[in-house]
Amino acid sequence: MASSKIQKTIARQQEKISEGQFYEAHQQLRVIASRYVKSGNWDAAIDLLYGGALALLKAGQGGSGGDLAIFLVDVLGKAGKEIGVGEMSKLLTILRAFPAREPTKKRFVTEMINWSSRVGDYPLGDPELHHVAGTIFAEGMVTPTIFFARRHVVFMLRIECEPYDAERHLVLGTKDSPEQLAKCEYEWYTQDEPATAALYAARAILPYLLVGNLRSANKAHLIFTSRLSSSNKSLSVQEVSSKSSDMRVYPILPLLNFLGLLLLAVQRGSSDLYKQLAKHYAPHVKEVSVWDDALAQIGEMYFGIRIPRQGNPLFDMMGSMMGFGGGSPKPKPKKVDVPPPPAADLD
To answer: In Å, how far from its chain's centre is CA 222?
Structure first.
């Protein structure tokens, strides 16, 4: 709870904001917060920056509000604050207040995640922060096309979505993130050709496998394929069941079948099944070369299939001498052990 002095300061600046004096309010809030920082009054600085950033963001001043929000994260770090309920609440409230297309929002998210990675238990950032950030970025993907008229001429304005930012954060999110990511990918897919379903499903499935999260990969696959089947009643699909697993097979979508069988191979930890799968679907997988690196990493992580590493000796030597990375070996992917289910053959 902010002190009465801080509350009065924020109230005075809110009056300026309501009068349209955005620049003056922003500058005064920054100056006062800097004084608190200089004197080591961290709590006062944090409360002031939080209240000021929120007031400016609610007034539609994304640049000024974003600047104070970023300043707030910097103060949290200098104050040595750890991730607590109060800190999380402030950061997420500010994040939700950002205008949809405000450029400083991405920097705020980056700084917020970096702070959480330094003071929390997760080296890649707090999952809850990732989940909320990813969800907010994903919301921009379903913004409708807007039509408006000017001087009897009709214009079409399509607000750009933020799918890449949504993907990046949801992959590192919570147990609720796969559902959001799968829905996000499916909405994106509906704007493309029907035959591209696997390309969008893979954008959720492969990254989850690469971070060692088989459970989320399976959940994303299930949600994506369920929406695909329910939204396309004419799409031919066959249910294949065994004692240990069930999956949908799409006769006209071989790459989507490949992804489903890949998950089954990872679940069973069977390198033979993976090799058989890779050989059978090679002509189709060859058409999506963007999967090559990911599949190679997955082969090494889950099945112990070493990635051939070739290098140019001269380039490596020059890289080592000049410091651009050619001389140092790449870190080897960690082998992921997946507890196998009871052995059973597919019918």
So the answer is: 19
By three-state DSSP, how is residue 239 classified?
A: strand
Task: Quickly count: other Cβ atoms within 10 Å of residue 320's Cβ.
Answer: 13
The whole-model pTM stands at 0.81
User: 163-170 and 104-119 helices cross at what angle (nearest 10)?
Assistant: 10
Question: What's the burial of 155, exposed, middle or buried (CB within 10 Å: 0-12/13-18/19+)?
Answer: exposed
> How many degrees, rounded to 5, is the angle at CA 232 between CA 231 and CA 233?
110
Q: Which residues contact 118 (CB under 8 A, 6 or more apart)?
A: 77
Q: Which long-range contacts (CB under 8 A, 24 or more apart) does 238-241 make?
A: 240/346, 240/347, 241/347
Q: Please list the rounded mean pLDDT of every run of 10 residues in the chain (347 residues).
A: 81 92 96 96 96 96 96 96 94 94 94 96 96 90 40 40 84 96 93 93 96 96 93 77 69 93 93 93 94 95 86 54 43 53 38
Q: What are phi and psi of 218, to 5 degrees?
A: -65, -40
Measuring CA to CA, which residue among 128, 111, 103, 20 is closest to residue 73? 111
pLDDT (0 to 100) of residue 288: 94
Backbone angles phi, psi at 142, to 5 degrees: -110, 20
Of 224, 200, 214, which is closest to residue 265 (Cα–Cα)?
Answer: 214
Distance separating alpha carbons of residues 99 and 57, to the nearest angstrom: 7
Nearest to 333 by CA among 205, 209, 199: 209
Say how far apart CA 306 and CA 270 lie, in whole Å.
15
